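Ticket #4471: complex job returned nothing on first submit. Input attached below:
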Amino acid sequence: MTDLLGRLAAAVGPAHVLVDPDLRAPYETDWTRRFTGAARCVVRPADTAQVAAVLRACAAAGAPVTVQGGNTGLVGGGVPAGGEVLLSLGRLTELEPVDRLAAQVTAGAGVTLERLQRHARAAGLDVGVDLAARSAATVGGLVATNAGGVRVVRYGSMREQLTGVEAVLSDGTVLRRLAGLAKDNTGYDLTQLLAGSEGTLAVITRVRLRLVPLLPARAVALVAVDGVAGALDVLAAARSGLPGLSAAELMLADGLELVRAHGRLPAPFGAAHPAYVLVESAGRTDQTDVLLEVLAGCPAVRDATVAADATGVARLWAYRETHTEAISAAGVPVKLDVSVPVRALPGLVAALPPAVAAAAPAARLVVFGHLGEGNLHVNVLDARGAADAVTDAVLRLVADRDGSISSEHGVGRAKTAWLGLSRDAAQVALMRRIRAAVDPAGLLNPGVLFEEKD
Amino acid sequence: MTDLLGRLAAAVGPAHVLVDPDLRAPYETDWTRRFTGAARCVVRPADTAQVAAVLRACAAAGAPVTVQGGNTGLVGGGVPAGGEVLLSLGRLTELEPVDRLAAQVTAGAGVTLERLQRHARAAGLDVGVDLAARSAATVGGLVATNAGGVRVVRYGSMREQLTGVEAVLSDGTVLRRLAGLAKDNTGYDLTQLLAGSEGTLAVITRVRLRLVPLLPARAVALVAVDGVAGALDVLAAARSGLPGLSAAELMLADGLELVRAHGRLPAPFGAAHPAYVLVESAGRTDQTDVLLEVLAGCPAVRDATVAADATGVARLWAYRETHTEAISAAGVPVKLDVSVPVRALPGLVAALPPAVAAAAPAARLVVFGHLGEGNLHVNVLDARGAADAVTDAVLRLVADRDGSISSEHGVGRAKTAWLGLSRDAAQVALMRRIRAAVDPAGLLNPGVLFEEKD
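Support reply: We reran it on our side without changes. The output follows.
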């Protein structure tokens, strides 16, 4: 123990090995306060070489390591179970100049999404991923968890932005693939293997990301529909008629009411409707006319309000983006993040209330999500004592529909018990074999992704 | 041996186990006639269950397997070294109806790209990948080799089209992920791991692919420029001004002359120019005006000819697409397929002639490629006896520029000796560990991707 602390202090400097409980505390609990665990210490390396030195020291001591970025995860993947060395990558903040010809940039794992966005926009480009935690979420964590967000319908998840990575294996070996080649068929795509591996294979220290055109014109419509089937009609119309489609978000009546009450937002329409779609189109030129035309041609639209100026766009987005905050203000929810093939979405939404009520009669269900990917964020309030039963009920509905028990949040520590619902035994066994091949001692994020074997 | 043949015959029916040398022959040599090897037998399963039975039989006998799709590869990856069971997937031709709502389709490994394209277009959609070998190349092989082609600048390589896969491990275990979920963060992306793994991890039996909008309007310009730097200026102008950019292909003066002579094509311009770019824009509405506008605003353009009708488009594409055929007619070339960061492209093109001349003084160099990815197809004719020296010289130039020694063709058997130029020892070691974890006996495509250890 002392020997390990000494080696860690030698690797990163004594000021960056935190053992005092008060100093450790901010790292030991996630922001939703649902996950907490004591770290042996918190180590804050400044660069890749220091990360490698930290991992060599931990490997020599057989000390397990929990890897943490901006600590904005939702499944406890960046919080210790108890006793791990917590490796915080927040100081890896190097940000290279934008490569305009390649439309790419290289960023340290600790760079926040918001800083990366500002950096890209200053060069006339943009980041293909955007999400509400942008001010704290770091690119290393975004890649390690393959974050999604509100632009997936246009640009894909974090994985699709990734053209290269630098990472350190648990034995301190550095892997570096940062040339950002658009095509490179020389064997297994280790870059993509690390995306979404939740820190169980290697510690990501730098990433090379593609950037997308900065689109100055943006029009948003909030569309009222009769239900999820109608929402899918709006999606289909938007997909075929809006080349600039950049978001298609689903909200339901209950969620919108909660958001309105919490944020004191005005009613968007004269009457309430069962469901709403927020449709955004972004381009180089004004998108209002094409958006109006698509809505006019879609029989599922019951009512709609459109905005194209910055204030109006922000006002409409607030109905969607305030959901998480409004739910948190109402209590500590069971948070599930699932996806099904798009055609199965209406059936899933219909099946949720009775299933949740059976598991937790007093529970309150708030559902919203990313329509284009069949991705629902299922939040269950007032499910005290029945969290596992609710989780189990919802995730089984999803599995019955060939869906994913974690669409964008990852498995972390929270969902390991349900991994088998999305991945059959053959796949889990294969993943474990790959894990053992890459991190034979199992030191990186033990207990994340897979249940620990007894 | 007899026991294995008996089990294979039981698995697929005796008519589909070919042992007669005449029947085996078409499978034992690649179409360029550069790679050949005798198979123990050729086995032609009809479905996934039969593939699994074949692999179980081979595993029980310790028999190595070579996996073959349409046999259109360029690096010998689908041809036996000698003595393998050749597993041909040409009978896995099941093609499911297009899922219009998800814009996806599931296809058997043996479906040709051309058939898939026809199928998608009949549903008002299209395949994001296109390449000259479309009539014979099969989707299983395209995924296993992560094929590229002429649409990568818009839609990415085969990997980017892939939303799910069904594959069989060397022990006969079937992995199935065909729901086509746009987002699924439940552990390692096994689908992406198989893409580009060249049959060394599993045998792909079915794939789930995203489809792209069918774009009826297409305009093509053949643009003359002073050199590769000018070509990159055209690329940059096209990237920023043409939202519909769907191809950006580079040709050089020598190649165009060879193509013209071979195909008896007219001179595109009154005078010859050092380099040419074929730029295509595709959209829902006519692309001619926007294409002309972009070219008019680009000072690097020396001359240009534009076509928007089908005949004219085909005429201009012929200059590019006839390259491979014209080169083959001129001899058996050393074929290299490399990429570098786009900014390094002019330097690489300038460095090639002296490097090739030093390795093979009588050689003739023909270079063309996919500009958007910094991808050059380097063909060297009349390099008899100096193939390895030429290969070595060119690939070292590429490695010096942080490039890939195989941009889209893969490593196969042809490039294993040079893998270390693109992948350092740590990466090769990690890939070997993953290979050993997934196929412990090393029965799938031995000698492909990695040099066999002594």
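Chain B has 17 helices and 17 strands. Closing as resolved unless it happens again.
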